[in-house]
Specification:
The complex is a heterodimer of chains A (1021) and B (444).
Chain A: H1 2-21, E1 23-32, E2 43-46, E3 52-54, E4 60-66, E5 70-74, E6 81-84, E7 93-95, E8 105-108, E9 111-114, E10 122-126, H2 127-130, H3 139-142, E11 149-153, E12 162-166, E13 179-182, E14 185-186, E15 210-216, H4 219-222, E16 233-238, E17 244-259, H5 268-286, H6 292-302, H7 316-320, E18 324-336, E19 340-352, E20 359-372, E21 377-391, E22 415-416, E23 421-422, H8 444-449, E24 450-470, E25 473-492, H9 497-500, E26 506-529, E27 533-556, E28 571-595, E29 599-610, E30 619-630, H10 635-638, E31 643-657, E32 668-670, E33 682-685, E34 694-707, E35 712-731, E36 740-762, E37 766-783, E38 789-791, E39 795-797, E40 805-809, E41 811-814, E42 821-824, E43 838-839, E44 847-851, E45 857-867, E46 870-880, E47 883-886, H11 889-892, E48 937-939, E49 942-953, H12 956-959, E50 966-980, E51 1002-1003, E52 1010-1020
Helix pairs in contact in A: 5-6
Chain B: H1 3-19, E1 33-35, H2 36-39, H3 43-57, H4 66-75, E2 80-82, H5 87-94, H6 102-123, H7 130-155, H8 191-208, H9 219-232, H10 236-249, E3 271-275, H11 285-290, E4 298-300, H12 302-305, E5 318-319, E6 322-323, E7 333-337, H13 338-352, H14 361-371, H15 382-392, H16 399-405, E8 409-410, E9 413-414, H17 426-431
Antiparallel strand pairs in B: 2-4, 3-7, 5-6, 8-9
Helix pairs in contact in B: 3-6, 3-7, 4-5, 4-16, 6-7, 7-8, 8-9, 9-10, 9-13, 10-13, 13-14, 13-15
The chains are: A mainly beta (1021), B mainly alpha (444).
């Protein structure tokens, strides 16, 4: 044993001696563990010595060593790594990104800034959160991930409009959507449509092309966008290539969607029972008009002539929902040399909606190129082309929209046994589609014989040149184009006659083109004086112009359904062409000053001129000032183990809202005043040379914190936004020949609080991190010149209330004595209180505020887990305190007042004296409690398992055998669970045909959101 | 190029771009509309605006029907029953008009819209080709004078009620509105001032207008309207002379039957002035309310039927409980018919004890009676003339003003009752605090 030990020591000695004696060269390559890209400039040092080297542009290094030392690799932003050389002569190292030490850089208006130096309130979303989500547009991915940003999709139709509010609504009649800027170009976000429900032009952007999204929330961050920043600014930055190895990324996913929820309606037995009772009640109270005799004839008609109304039992919802497929293929190639870098991507996706015949198909390609022409000059371009095809459904208000099928009685068979065709297709008596069977026009006929296709070609192009005049001073010039070409083609065939009123087909063709040009030209100067003063200045101008044209033609009378274009229409019933344009000319500047790395000052200003503004207010000035103090740099905190980052910031500034109609300031004549066939013109609008933007003054206080070496970090913000000069139509003396004039007169305010927290609960092999955000916003209209502006069904904008409050009669339930619906009188007592006595006379009840569609607060909670190659991400998102009005309640929850199938809750109707219930006695043909009232308002709060992602990254050792960098397989579940008391289909709803600033929180046969499951794979070469 | 130069160029280029000012680029013209400043540049522009004034005058709230319909509801004393669901005409029918009645407001607003367009035409009359100038000016003055006449009758006290020189009328606006400023907040002029302007406009219009002018205003139209104004002022000789000029012009001829005077898609031979309605443009509001094919809001009472003599062919306009006088949706809305001129001349002759135009009152009345299939009369009294006038012009918007000028009564309400005058619309008084309210109304 002893011998053995000696021998071992000897050998060890010999070995070490022999290595020590030898001088040799180690070579290797350092890459990023995240994406395998080369890391130039990494410091490589022999441990315990001063011998060192650094990597070249391709990440390669060469170092001379003796023996078998340990090499230490350090690089800013990456976790240092020690690697024992052993006997190797090649040591390749992959460095992991150190998320805590890297100075996070955020994109700001006309530049970028280190996050810790930012004095404004900015929320950032990175590519990982957006990629491969099975939704047509990226905004969905923001849901629950950012404080202060409310995202609401109107309904579950794909490619449909979406509502985004940054820190509340700041306008009553102008726009409330944020300004979207893609790589420096303000985007076109609305497009004319012939459908009655808006589309979402942002869906033309491939979410997988996006590198980051920044939401500029306060004035300090947003005021550099001046007159269009009051609703916040969303900066979208697309991916760019890095020098080094070419990275090829292929991803594919496939999956399916279902509705989040179905609503329960009566089955045939329940339906017949309820309606027989309703008819008997009607006869008893009102006479025989809608009595049992009338009912039985109708039941027979709706049961396709069957004598027993219970012959059929159809769940109509099942006829229009489908298990929808979703597929997406995405290939990107990125890389470059020291001088030229590129990112190119190609994507195809095909997403079916949960409702039949609804589909969104997108094909897009992108090339982003950067070239260092000389040491001083760099040039580049972004180019992308997208084609989207949106196979659309009728808007929510149409009998032909699939969801309205729920109005059909369950006793009606889906297939008419008399014709063996879909109910409604054929009336054998006339040889034409039925005119009074089923109850209403059957939406399935639209699925069979109508289509509405919106095809959009969208081009985003941006070219730039940047010239370094001297160290610190650069000049950058950008020219961008956002070209949108939309073609809407609709055809309603002969089977749709009952709905369209035209027996031989109706066709629509509409073409819209929006060309939106933008140029930005600006200087950027930054310098550091004596290492204590750091100054960064931006000064520049921008000009934007948008030209929109629309052509529309409608024809009727087609020879047969084989002819579907207007060329075959015997009767051209409508035709028009129109256009509208606007422009902005702007000058902007920003100065950021930093003293001793801890005192921050930011000043910015923009002068905006626009064609939309009146002649006497052509230009507006939008300044902002902000201060920041990084306390953690101070000596009293510098050595704290607890607090490693603490920053206080405050900002105040003025932003505007220029989303006002084009040409609203001008005095105008229109040529639509023909008389008896003689053309004529008439004055239509009185000039308002003072017309201008709406103005918002915003004050923001923020605190950013990091504890325990950044394991716990986050931000807290409080803001007050006061909006002045709201645009309102104000009555003018009619003796002028005009009725109203658009003027800047109203006021409103938003106050809110935002809180976000990131926590690394577990680090090490098993990682667990949590992100939580909470935001609350209180909106109040403070001045509308006494006007009450109505919208939606019951929504109002009225002084002293949040925008869009529900204003109506308050439902008091059912009189236990006779089953009549009763309402609170709510008349004003002399002492100012409300008279809470009830009445069965709807018209004598006073209308009061009965609900609020604006949420009290929203929240998001993300938990990320990873272990070895496995990763799991769980996002819960919640909206709390808002109310929803069911506009269809008067039909579907109406105590059987007409033949519409009823929601199951109607079964608890009043039947006999002393019944205590909230559903009034049923009377066929007579309304009992169906007038608009708080009866149809319910709590719209919900918490939803928005996104559940499970992934597994195959071990590198395995994938490299196949020369693959990275292989990850994953599954995503979207909207898996919804916790809500809402009685309708889905609480995330706002009926598409009404949605607006004031009209919020309304449900009208709204399609539920999609619950989507996908399975995907990402392969990196 | 030296490197230094490039630098200089970039700096210059950069600063140049900052100074780049394209004010012109901010002046973007709308595509579907024309800026007011450019809309009336040429003769044809002004003529097109004149057509726009007719279009505005034909609005449902103006001569399209509401002026006639509302005044007939107010003049009704059991002849008809308003059974419609609209609360606003219901208030007028009940003679309890609220200040915020939107029909009353719309008639006010849309009438002033016509006036503003006419003012714009007149302000730009110098741009009109010499050959057309007189006609264009005449038409604009005809429209302006006529609309002021309708306004003063509805919103002011009648000429014969008290002192027109002190009774408040309506605001007199004679200049087009280019901008809303202090001057836009007008006050009410006196009834006399408005009448003076009406007479001036219509007299000048009659002089300027041609005898024929398609369906647009003619010399006869201006004279016909003048005859009504004179009747209101009890200037019977002038009224009769004006009516006589129309009759003597020979441009108009009574239709063979009473029924033929109505439901025509173009002007009939006896239409002196009528509002054009086509499938493309215009609304016949009388059709909307009276026709049983439309809303059928007016049910005819026996009390009215009983006022006709047996055999009166004019009874043919009653069918079931409704009148078919306006059953054709795209028919012109008669504003001035020749039949009225005979009745006016007859009344004037009777009142002045002369034979205006050399024709006796009896002869004029018999012209009307004979067309109605009635036996001629040999003598005629004033009440008979007025009753003939009522039945001939029924539902054409004349009854209220005939009752007022003759100091009659509507049931228990005397001709000068406060509730037989429209209120100044609440909306208008809210927008313009300088306007006083009529007596009998809130704030009046």
């Amino acid at each position: 044993m002893k011998k053995l030990l000696l021998l071992f020591l000897f050998l060890l000695n010999v070995l070490s001696f022999s290595t020590m004696a030898q001088n040799r060269t180690i070579t290797g390559r350092v890459t990023s563990a995240a994406d395998g890209s080369a890391l130039p400039g990494v410091s490589v040092v022999v441990k315990g010595t001063t011998i060192g080297a650094s990597t070249d542009v391709e990440g390669r290094y060469q170092i001379s060593v003796t023996g078998s030392p340990t090499l230490v690799f350090t690089f800013i932003g990456f976790t240092p790594r020690e690697e024992a050389v052993g006997t190797r002569s090649t040591v390749d190292v992959r460095l992991a990104v150190d998320t805590k030490t890297i100075e996070e850089v955020v994109v700001v208006g006309y530049g970028s800034q280190e996050k810790r130096e930012v004095t404004g309130s900015i929320a950032s979303i990175k590519a990982e959160d957006i990629q491969n989500t099975p939704t047509p547009s990226f905004e969905n991915a923001l849901q629950g991930r950012t404080a202060g940003v409310l995202v609401e999709q109107q309904n579950g139709k794909v490619g449909q409009g979406i509502k985004v509010r940054v820190r509340g609504s700041s306008s009553v009649s102008a726009g409330n959507e944020p300004l979207y800027v893609l790589d420096g170009v303000p985007l076109t976000t609305s497009v004319p449509n012939a459908n009655g429900a808006p589309t979402n032009p942002l869906a033309d952007l491939n979410p997988n092309d996006i590198a980051s999204i920044e939401v500029l929330k306060d004035a300090a961050a947003a005021a550099i966008y001046g007159s269009r920043a009051a609703n916040g600014v969303v900066l979208i930055t697309t991916k760019r290539g890095n020098s080094g190895d070419t990275k090829i990324n292929v991803s594919y996913f496939t999956g399916f969607s279902k509705p989040t929820r179905k609503r329960e309606f009566l089955n045939s037995a329940e339906y017949v029972e309820l309606f027989r009772e309703a008819a008997a009640n009607s006869e008893e109270r009102y006479g025989s008009d809608y009595g049992p005799a009338f009912l039985e004839t109708r039941l027979r008609r709706y049961a396709a002539g069957a004598t027993d109304p219970l012959t059929y039992d159809t769940d109509w919802q099942d006829e229009v929902f489908q298990d929808a497929s979703v597929n997406q293929m995405d290939v990107s190639v990125a890389g470059g040399t020291e001088k030229t870098r590129f990112f190119t991507g190609l994507s195809y996706s095909n997403q079916e909606g949960i409702l039949i015949e609804n589909r969104f198909e997108k094909m897009s390609g992108r090339l982003n190129l950067d070239h260092q022409a000389t040491e001083r000059l760099s040039v580049g371009m972004n180019f992308s082309l997208t084609r989207t095809k949106n196979y659309r459904l009728s808007n929510d208000n149409a009998f032909s929209t699939p969801m309205q099928i729920v109005a059909l009685p369950p006793i009606t068979p889906a297939i008419d046994p008399r014709t063996k065709l879909v109910s409604g297709v054929l009336d054998p008596a006339t040889g034409r589609p039925n005119t009074n069977y089923p109850l209403y026009y059957n939406p399935l006929l639209n699925a069979i014989d109508a289509d509405f296709l919106t095809t959009v070609y969208r081009n985003f192009t941006n070219v730039y040149a940047s010239y370094k005049i001297f160290n610190g001073l650069t000049f950058r010039s950008e020219f961008g184009l956002d070209l949108l070409n939309q073609n809407e083609n609709a055809y309603y065939g002969r089977l749709t006659a009952r709905n369209t009123g035209t027996p031989n087909g109706t066709g629509i063709s509409a073409i819209s083109q929006i060309a939106n040009y933008n140029t930005n030209n600006f200087f950027n100067y930054n310098t550091n004086i004596a290492d204590v003063h750091s100054i960064d200045v931006v000064l520049g101008m921008s000009y934007q112009e948008s030209n929109q044209t629309t052509n529309y033609v409608e024809g009727q009378q087609f020879p047969s359904n084989a002819y579907r274009t207007i060329a075959s229409a015997a009767d051209i019933t409508e035709g028009s062409s129109s256009g509208t344009d606007y422009s902005f000319l702007s000058y902007f500047t920003r100065v950021n000053y930093k003293f001793r790395d801890r005192y921050l000052l930011g000043l910015s200003g923009r002068v905006d001129g626009s064609s939309r503004f009146g002649n006497d207010s052509k230009y507006g000035f939008f300044p902002a000032a902000s201060l920041g103090w990084i306390l953690s740099e101070e000596s009293f905190l510098a050595n704290s183990n607890l607090i490693n980052y603490l920053k206080l910031r405050g900002s105040y500034g003025i932003t505007g809202n220029a989303e006002i109609p084009n040409a609203a300031s001008l005095g105008l004549y229109s040529g639509d005043a023909g008389y008896g066939g003689t053309p004529g013109q008439r004055p239509t609008q009185i000039e308002n040379p003072d017309l201008k933007w709406e103005e918002t003054a915003q004050l923001d206080f923020g605190l950013e914190y990091g504890f325990w070496n950044g394991r716990l970090s986050g931000e807290i913000d409080y803001y007050i936004k006061k909006t002045d000069d709201l645009l309102l139509n104000v009555n003018v003396p009619g003796t002028s020949g005009y009725r109203t004039q658009l003027k800047n007169v109203g006021k409103l305010e938003n106050k809110g609080f935002e809180f976000s927290l990131n926590s690394d609960n577990l680090v090490g092999d098993f990682k667990w991190s949590t992100n939580f955000n909470y935001s609350r916003n209180r909106n109040k209209i403070t001045d509308l010149q006494g006007q009450i502006i109505e919208g939606g069904y019951l929504n109002r904008a009225v002084e002293g209330q949040p925008i869009g409050v529900f204003f109506g009669v308050e439902y008091a339930g059912v009189d236990p004595a006779n089953g009549d619906a009763i309402y609170y009188l709510n008349t004003l007592n002399p002492d100012g209180s409300r008279n809470r006595e009830t009445t069965s006379d709807y018209s004598s009840a006073e209308r009061v505020v009965i609900g609020n569609p604006n949420p009290d607060y929203t929240l998001g909670l993300t938990n990320n887990f990873s272990f070895k190659g496995f990763d799991l991400s769980v996002l819960f998102q919640g909206v709390v305190g808002n109310e929803i009005y069911n506009g269809a309640g008067s039909y579907m929850s109406a105590s059987a007042s007409w033949f519409d199938n009823q929601t199951r809750d109607q079964l608890r109707r009043w039947q006999k004296p002393n019944d205590i219930t909230d559903v009034p006695r049923a009377y066929l043909g007579y309304a009992n409690g169906t007038d608009p009232s708080s009866r149809y308002i319910s709590d719209g709060s919900y918490v939803r398992l928005k996104n559940l992602t499970v992934g597994y990254t195959l071990p590198t050792s395995f994938t490299q055998k196949f020369h693959l960098d990275k292989v990850r397989i994953y599954a995503i579940g979207l909207n898996l669970l919804t916790f809500t008391d809402y009685e309708g289909w889905d609480p995330e709803v706002n009926t598409d045909y009404l949605a607006g600033n004031i009209s919020q929180g309304n449900d009208f046969y709204g399609a539920p959101q999609a619950k989507t499951f996908t399975f995907g794979i990402n392969i990196g070469f | 190029m030296k490197r230094k130069n490039i630098k200089a160029y970039v700096v210059i280029l950069g600063f140049a771009s900052l100074l780049f000012s394209c004010n012109d680029q901010l002046d973007i013209d709308p595509q579907q509309s024309v800026e007011t400043g450019q809309a009336l540049a040429t003769s044809s522009d002004v003529e097109a605006a004149l057509v726009g004034a007719y279009d505005a005058a034909g609005d449902a709230d103006v001569y399209g029907g509401d002026i006639q319909f509302l005044s007939d509801l107010l003049a009704n004393n059991g002849d008809i029953a308003f059974v419609g669901t609209f609360a606003q005409p219901g208030q007028v029918y009940d003679k309890v008009i609220l200040e915020n009645n939107s029909f009353i407001a719309n008639t006010w607003l849309d009438s002033y819209r016509v006036i503003n367009i006419a003012n714009s035409v007149l302000a730009n009359i110098s741009k009109v080709d010499e050959a057309k100038k007189a006609r264009v000016e005449g038409e604009a003055k005809f429209l302006r004078g006529s609309i002021y006449f309708e306004l003063i009758k509805l919103y002011g006290k009648a000429w014969v009620d008290g002192n027109p020189a002190t009774n408040p009328g309506v605001p007199l606006v004679l200049e087009p509105t280019n901008i809303i400023n202090e001057a836009s907040f007008v006050s009410r002029n006196s009834v006399a001032e408005i009448y003076a302007q009406i007479l001036k406009d219509l007299t000048e219009a009659e002089a300027l207008l041609p005898p024929t002018n398609g369906f647009f205003a003619t010399k006869g139209a201006a004279a016909g309207m003048l005859s009504r104004v004179f009747l209101q002022q009890e200037k019977f000789l002038d009224a009769g002379d004006a009516a006589d000029r129309v009759i003597k012009s020979g441009r108009y001829r009574l239709t063979d039957t009473y029924a033929q005077a109505f439901n025509n898609t173009g002007n009939s031979s006896e239409d002196i002035f009528a509002i054009q309605v086509t499938s493309q443009d215009g609304i016949n509001e009388l059709n909307t309310y009276y026709s049983q094919l439309q809303r059928g809001d007016v049910e005819i009472q026996d009390k009215l039927i009983n006022q006709y003599e047996a055999g009166d062919e004019r009874l043919g306009i009653y069918e079931d409980e409704y009148t078919n006088k306006f059953d054709e949706q795209f028919a012109v809305v008669p504003v001035l018919r020749l039949a009225e001129m005979y009745l006016t001349r007859a009344e004037a002759s009777l009142r002045t004890g002369t034979n205006i135009g050399g024709v006796s009152a009896v002869a004029d009345i018999n012209t009307i009676r004979e067309r109605a299939g009635l036996e001629p009369v040999t003598t005629v009294t004033l009440p008979q003339v007025l009753q003939e006038r009522k039945l001939e012009l029924i539902f054409e918007g004349q009854l209220l003003h005939d009752i007022k000028r003759t100091k009659g009564a509507v049931g228990t309400f005397p001709y000068n009752a406060n509730n037989l005058v429209f209120p100044v619309p609440q909306r208008e008084r809210d927008a313009n605090p300088n306007l006083t309210q009529n007596p009998g109304y809130l704030g009046g």
